[in-house]
Each structure stands twice: as C-alpha cells, then as structure tokens.
Amino acid sequence: MNTGDARNPKLGVQAATKIYHTASGDLLALDGCSLDISANEIVSIVGPSGCGKTTLLWSMSGLHSLTSGEIRLDGKAITGPHPDIGIVFQEANLLPWRNLDANIRFPFEIKGEKPDRAWIAHLLNRVGLDGFGGKFPRELSGGMQQRAAIVRALALKPSVLLMDEPFGALDSFTREEMNRLVEEIWLDTKTTIVFITHSIEEAIFLSDRVVVLSARPGRVAKEYRVPFARPRSLEIMATKEVFDLTNRIKMDIVGERTRPKAPERPSAEIVRIRP
Amino acid sequence: MSGGDAIPEFSKSKSGDGHEVSLTNLSAFASGPGIKSGKEVAAILAVAVIIIGGIELALRLFHVPLYIMPPPSSIAYALFDEFPLIAPHLGYTLVELLSGFTIGAIIGLVLAAVITQFPFAEKIVAPYILLLVTTPMLALVPLLILRFGFGYTPRIIAVALAAGPMVMINAATGFRRVDSAKIALARSYGASTLQIFWKIRAPMALPMILVGLMIGAIFGLLTAVGAEMVGGGFGLGNRLTTYSSMIQMPQFFAVVLILSTLGILIYVLFFLIGKKWASWEA
Question: Domain ranges in chain B?
C-alpha cells in the first residue's frame, strides 16, 4: 500500500497499535496502522477529529510508546526520542521565560552541545527572524513564534521533521505564508516531513502524499498522491484538480466521521490525480 | 516511555500563548511601586502631606495628650533622637528574620519540589500543610521559650515555622503547573528528569515561588516581632513593649515606623526580583 520506496523507507510504521488506559476504560487510538514514508518526502496526515493523528505522530517521535507494532527510522526500531527527529508542536511551544536566542539554544543545552551558530543564523535568516534574537515570545506574533519553533526544531539538523498541526492557531493568510516557508525550507534542506493538519488545502499544497486516517481507531484509510511540481504557487490551489482532490478527501473524512461502526480493516487505495 | 501516556490532546484547551497561567497571584506586582508615573507619585506625596499635616494640626489644636497620640513631628524627632538606641534592636530583629526565613524558605522550597513529584503523597500531606499555614506560629512561642530559653533560638524557629509553610504552599502551586507540551519538548531532546526540573519546572514555578517568598518574609517579620514581644530583652518587638510600658509614645511610634518600612522594603525587594526574573508572566 505504500507508494514510496517500499523496501527502504525513511520512516516505517508497522502495524502500530496504541491503547490508552483512561479512567473511563481503555481507549483504542490506533489499530494496526501501517505507513511508510520515503526519504525527502512530505507526507500529510489528515482525518476526523480524535482519529489518532497526534498519537501516531507522537509515537513516531518516540515520545509515546506503542502498545504493539513498531516504528522504524532508517530500518532501526525507535524506542525513545531520537536526535534525528525534530518536532514542531501545536502552537509554538516556546519557553516564555527565554528570549528567541535562548529558546533556539535550548536543544543544545539539553544535549550538552555547542550551538552551531552559523547554521542557526542561516535558519533565522531563512525564516525572516534576523535581529529578533533578543525578543521574548510574548513580544512576537503567532506566526513569528511558530517560525522560531521551526528554527528550533531544525537547529539540530534532524533528517525527519514531525509537525503536529503547527499552524492550526494562525489566521489563514499567515498560514499560507507559513506553508510556503515550509516548502522553501524543504527545498533547502530536503528534510523528510510528516505533517499533521486539519486543513485539507494545507495538506494538498504542501505534500507529496496525503494520507487519510479512518475514524478511531486510526488506520490508514486512503492515500492520495499530489503530483504538482515544486516550488508550488498558490495558483494551483484554484485548479480543478485541486478542487476535486479536496472534495474527495473531504468526503473521505466526512464518510469516516459518519461511519457507524469500524468495519473490517479497509484496504488503502491510491488514487492518482493528473495535474 | 511508559504504557500510561496521557492522550496528547492537551493543547486544545489552552490559551493562545501556550501556557495556562493564572495571573491573579502576581497582580500585586502589577500595581506595585515601579509602575507609577511622576504625576501619581506627586499625588501620593500630596495626600501624605495633607494627612500628616492634618493629624499634626488636629492633635495640637485639641491638645491631645502625648500618651494618647503623639504628633507626627514628635515621632520624627524621636526616630532621629532615639535611633542609635533602636538600631541594635533592628539588627537583632533582622538576624532573626533573615536566619529564620532562610531556614524556612529552603525547607519549604525543597519540600514543595519533592512533594509535587508524588501526587499521592501530596494528597496525604496537603491537610497538614494547610494546618501549618493557618496556625499562627506565634501561639507556639511561649512553648518554644520554655524549651529554648530567651535567646535567638525560639524566635528563629518561630520565624522559620511561619515562613516555611507559606513558601511551600505557594511554591507547590508553582511546581504543580505542569505544561505537558513543554515537558514533551524537553523529552524530545532526551532531557533527563533533573534537566526537566531545572530547565522547565523550576522556571515555570518561579513567579509563584517569588510570591511565596514575599508572603513568607512578611509573615516572618510579623512572627519575629510578635515573638520578641512575648519574652527576651532585645529586638524591635521588645522595644515596643518597653516603650509602651514607659508611655514613651513618640519612641513607640518611631519603632512602628521602622517596622512598616521593613515590610515595604520586603515588598519592593520581591517586586524588583519579580520584574527582573518573572516578567515573562505578566
């Protein structure tokens, strides 16, 4: 079901199952979810609310353990946080008592490493935050905070970047700007990106592949290739292809949401859209 | 990496800036002395002049006896005249306050940091802490004097007992403010429990710790003076009882003035520290 380099994925999710033990009983968040992500690929994960997108991402990051199944990075099973994986969290998640420079230094402090000043300066310049190093998070707009968070996540040069609904709290204009920025950074670094979002447009604009998860328990319901060339312009968002694709994904998600009971494991299908 | 991970849906209920913090406890700082404009200061001084002048005038006009209420001018005079005699007592009180407060604050901080790591233990201990906070430690002073005599010891213990629980209860509130997203951030870089404590939990708790230290210091001052009034021949509290028994009211009020100044200095000190180190919160 994987369309990437199936034999040698960058990040491989194999039959991931996660059960949360809550006060109101066990909660099956992921049920045998499998997904392969190739190197240098941007993959978006969309799905109905509470379908386990964030759980899946946190498992990929090594922050949460799986109940069963496996996540493999370059063929090696992930058992905890991995230096090769960077995370951009929902909202910027900057430390409010540190200025931007100190926030970006934070990963290096934890690791006990010397910050790579040239690389950080390059990243700050790339996201347009030159000269803001002394500012505190509260002095910055939401978009600027999220740019700083992206710089922090990339500061350790991870080969995989996990982004958990990073722009959900931003207005739509800032969001488009940030989407273009992510693409620019990708063109610059070719970092493998896994992107979780509620916005289908955002997913299509950014991704090589959009993965639709089923309603809880989460499994891969469908995958769509998005074959537009990069860098993409906002104009493609007005084309009929994108319009149709958006609607198909929307119908998938609505279908998932209104589906009465989780049936047999659906086989994922790949739909190709001609640009 | 345990099986009992929380469901990572925490950020849904959070405010825009990513940390759910009540500012009520620092509102005292917000309206503090540092934020006044020149005009406001002038108005405050004008009011002071009017009140003090008015009292002075009324007391002299109605020939109120000195032992009932001395006029402000005589208090000011007594303050200068008697200060060399009062100064050593101010020193004794400061020694009691500083040593008692330091002991109490350290114990309070350590207990708060430890106890908040164990929610179950915290639940068990909470009512006893509340008991310590609400019991006026002055009540124990006669007992402490019986056991330790009339020296520094009972007073320092009383100050520590008064300040410690105040520091602890506020610091615990601070340490309890867990932001799972920030802890996850630190963990994603492989942070140890100790690193998470020093780099995430402690800075997040700092504003509340400062509030606790300020309240603890003021309660400590209160208790030190009270303990000095109960027994022992030295300290500002002892001066109060001595002067009042000799009906030396100007000197009595001079000591009261010194005590108010001490209280204000404590407040200003923590206000300035808060402004420097915890301004990110306000």
Answer: 34-64, 75-277
| Fold topology of B75-277 | MetI-like fold (1.10.3720)
Give counts: helices (H), strands (E), chain B. Answer: 11, 0
Q: Specify the CATH number for the domain of residue A32.
A: 3.40.50
Predicted-complex ipTM score: 0.83
Contacts of B215 (CB under 8 A, 6+ apart): B166, B167, B170
Cα–Cα distance measured from residue A230 to residue A232, given in angstroms and rounded to the nearest whole number: 5
Distance from C-alpha of A86 to C-alpha of A9, rounded to nearest angstrom: 18
* Structural domain harbouring A266: 1-84+209-275
* Cis before A217? omega within 30: yes
Average pLDDT over every residue of A117-132 = 90
Which token pair is A155? 């500061």
Could you tell me the pLDDT band of residue A260, with boundaries at 50, 70 and 90? Answer: low
Query: How many C-beta atoms surround the C-beta of residue B172 within 10 A?
Result: 25
- Number of neighbouring beta carbons within 10 Å of residue A74: 15
**pLDDT score, position B34:** 55
Of B138, B137, B197, B134, nearest to B171 by C-alpha is B197
Closest CA–CA distance from residue B200 to any residue of chain A (Å): 8
- Residue A120 CA to chain centroid, in angstroms? 22
Contacts of A91 in chain B (CB under 8 A): 11, 14, 16-18, 181
Burial of A251 (0-12, 13-18, 19+ CB in 10 A): exposed
Residues of chain A in contact with residue B205, where contact means CB-CB under 8 angstroms, are none
pLDDT at A172 over 90: no
Q: What is the tally of structural domains in chain A? A: 1
Among residues B91, B214, B99, the alpha carbon closest in space to that of B157 is found at B99
The predicted structure's pLDDT at residue B67:
83
Q: How far apart are CA A94 and CA A103, in angstroms?
A: 7
Closest by CA to B222, choosing from B151, B271, B162, B141, is B162
Cross-chain residue pair A110–B2, CB shorter than 8 Å: no
Q: What is the pLDDT of residues A42-94, one digit of tens each?
A: 999 998 887 888 889 999 998 888 888 899 999 888 888 988 999 999 888 99
Residue A202 falls inside a structural domain: no
Which CA distances in Å does A269 have to A176, A211, A212, A272, B35?
29, 10, 10, 10, 64
Residue A225 is assigned to a structural domain of this protein: yes
Structure-model confidence comparison of residues A6 and B197, the more confident one = B197
User: pLDDT at position B1, please?
Assistant: 39
The pLDDT value recorded for residue B200 is 93
Measured CA angle at B166 (ends B163, B171), to 5 deg: 120
Contacts of A111 in chain B (CB under 8 A): 189-190
Q: Is B202 on the interface with A (CB under 8 A)?
A: no
